[in-house]
Amino acid sequence: MSRISLSKLREMKVAGEKIAILTAYDASFSHVLDQAGVDVILVGDSLGMVVQGQESTLPVTVDDMVYHTRNVVRGSESVFVIADMPFMSYANPEQAISNAARLMAEGGAHMVKLEGGAVVCETLKQLADRGVAVCAHLGLLPQSVHRLGGYRVQGKKESEAATLIEDAKALQQAGADMLVLECVPADLAKQITAAVDMPVIGIGAGADCDGQVLVLYDMLGITPGKRPRFTHDFLADTGAIPAAIAKYVQDVKSGAFPSPEQQY
Ligand code: KIV
Question: Which residue has the least CA distance to atom 1 on ligand 1?
Answer without folding.
Answer: 44
